[in-house]
Structures are given as structure tokens and as C-alpha cells.
Amino acid sequence: MISGAKPAADTTAAAGHRSVPARPAGDRSGAGLGRLALFGALSALGPVSIDMYAPALPKMAAALGGAPRDLQLTMTVFVAGLAIGQLVIGPVSDAVGRRRPLLWGLALYTCASLACAAATGTWWLTAGRLAQALGAAGALVLVRAVVRDLYTGTHLSRTFARLMLVNGLAPVLAPAIGGFAVGWVGWRWLFVAMAASGAAMYLAVLLKLPDSRPPGPDRAVDARRLLRSMGRVLGDRAFVVNTAGAGLTFAGCLFAYVAGGPFVLQVVYGLSPQAFAAVMGVNGVGIILAGRLSNLLVGRWGEYAMVVLGMSVACVGGAGVLVTTTVHLGLPVLLCALFVLVGPIGLVVPNSASLALAAHAETAGAASALLGVTHLVIGAIAIPLVGIGGGTDPVVLGTVMVVFTASALALTVALRPRKAG
Length: 421
Hints:
Elements: H1 30-43, H2 45-51, H3 57-64, H4 68-96, H5 99-117, H6 122-150, H7 153-167, H8 170-184, H9 188-208, H10 223-234, H11 237-268, H12 273-301, H13 303-327, H14 331-342, H15 345-357, H16 364-386, H17 394-414
Helix pairs in contact: 1-6, 1-7, 1-9, 2-8, 3-4, 4-6, 4-16, 5-6, 5-9, 6-16, 7-12, 7-15, 8-12, 11-13, 11-15, 11-16, 11-17, 12-13, 12-14, 12-15, 13-14, 13-15, 13-17
InterPro entries: Efflux_drug-R_Bcr/CmlA, MFS, MFS_dom, MFS_trans_sf, Sugar_transporter_CS
Membrane topology: Multi-pass membrane protein
Family: Belongs to the major facilitator superfamily. Bcr/CmlA family.
């Protein structure tokens, strides 16, 4: 596996379960790289499920007889489903293991994607997206928990950064697929493709991924124990500050952009779905480059410095979007500002996750769930705010971006934990 795996203390699995020993540092085996690719695909499942259909939102609204707000509601519901699913699956996985809940989630995601493909109205689509999100939540929360099971320190942040490189492909490939598929085969086939990807990941996990935390007799599911675990996590100041700061950044940089961007750039500025997909792809490249920069510098500068740097750059990008839309500087300037805004996700998210999860080896599932839920709840707040004014007002979009990114930086700097970075 990638460098930085901590030595395995005990590689014996419980009866009937396969455990995965941590690989030694520097292991570049094909199996390790394959597992990293699977981790990246699983962690990208939720973002892909949003990014792939974002270019199709205007056409879906027309086909299903809904307003822009109706389709933005499907995105809000999806985000809420991701939050609820993680909140349940993460703590449960600390008791029953990571592998079984992951398989259950992927099966639900696959079936719900097919239901979305058959939708005849916005409410049917909304219900299908909720079920789809509950399934995808397992992939999101359990990948973080498995990585925390295997890595510590800067190796943990480097692993998250490598996953961010893979995740950066989501806004590159998913919108491109979505934008071109809308014109060629129609939006329903996007959900068929999601179902196919869910089924493929199910088979990969079933055949290739052992359990990094097999269930044991001392870890039975107990509601009070799960609540105590979550209480301990929430009592950690480093966890709270880093999770909230990253959530505000993620909401301002990505959720607001994905929810409002399709309507602002296509309806107001006249981009085609294909052109909008290309714009999202370029922004995805920015995330990849920022993740690579983080991987190179985190050992020298530390995680906290990477987080503050990323948030500062995002604030500049958000201010650029607001100024550009307010004084009408034109589409090229707006696209540059969006690039500066979105790219720093590759600096903020992996390092804040490393700082937040560092002290929670025994409750990695609960901590990962709370981290993911916080990000998504804040994102769910940002999405309807973008819809103020009908969902097509560029100034509203820029304002939301500025407020969220500036709040993230102020929170992170003002409440910096003593041992950050």
C-alpha cells in the first residue's frame, strides 16, 4: 500500500471475517495501489452522484415539470441522506466491522439509482435520491474509518491527500460524462451508469477488501456505548474546530457552486451543459493540483499550515466571485475566480480530516461519521441559500461563497487548538 502504513499489532481475524494487516511504509505493491484506487472510488461515490447530474439539472427540471428549486431540493435531500446514513453507519461499524455495512450500503445505492432512472416526477426522484444517498453514505464514512484504522500522523494526512487526488477526478470526469450524456442518450442513463458503478464496487469490496476492524465479542452494538463514543469525539476541541472549519470551506467552495453554478452559468451566462461540464472539469484539476501540493509540503509545514493556506486562497476566490458578479466583470473573470475558490479544497479537506481524526483510533467510525455529517449539514444549509432569488442570481451565489469561506478561516484561526499541525 502507499507509504505510511502503521505496523499491524494483530492480524488475526475473528472467525468468519477477513482482517487487513497494515502494510509497511514504502510498500508500492500492486495490491496496495489497487486498494488505494478502490478507496478513492468509494470515497468519490457521493460526489460523483452529485457532479454527474449537475449539468443535467435544467433539462431534468423541464422533463419532470419542476422548477429549479425542485431540482435543487433533490440535491439538498441527497446531502441530508448522506449525513443521516453516516451518522448511523459510522458508529455501528466500530462494533460490527467495516465490511458488512459497506456492502449493505452499496447494494442499496445500486437499487436506488435504478429507481431514480425510472422517475416520472420530482417527488419520485427526490425519494430515490434519498435512498441513493443513504447507500452512498456507507462508502463515504467507512473509507475514512478504514484509512484511520491503518495510518497515523503525517502518513494519515498524506493518504487522505492521495485520496483527494483520486477524488479530484470526480469533478473532472463526472460532469463531463453528465454533460455529454444529456445530449446523446438523455439524463436517465446517468442513473443507470451510477447503478453500474455501485454494482462494480460491491463486487470489488466483496472479493478484494478484507475487514480492517473485524467484529469482536467486546464490541457488541450498544446504543449507550455508541452515544458515549460520539460524546468523547465531540469533546475533542481539535476535532470540532477542524471539522467545522473544513465543513464551512466545503460548503462555500463546492456545495454552493454545484447547487447554484449550473443555473447561473447556463441560464444567466449562456453556457451549454457540455461547456459547464468542461468548467467543472477544469476546477477538478485545481483540486488535484492542490492535493498534490499538500502531499509534497505537509511533512515540512504541517497540516495546520496547509489548512490555513487553503482557506485563505478560497477566501480570495470567493471575494473574486462576488466582486465579478456585482460589477459585471464578465464570464472569463468569473471562471478564474471560481478556479481559485474551488481548488483549495485539495489543501483543506485532507489535512483537516487528519487533524480531526488523529486522536480517535478506537472510535474512528464514530469520528468519521460526525466529520462527514458536519460537512454535509453545513452544505445542506448553503444549498437553499443559493436558491434565494429563484436560484439564478449570481450575486447571491457569490455572497454565500464569501460568507462561508471567510467564516471558515476566522473560526480556524481564532479557535486554533494548541497542538494543531
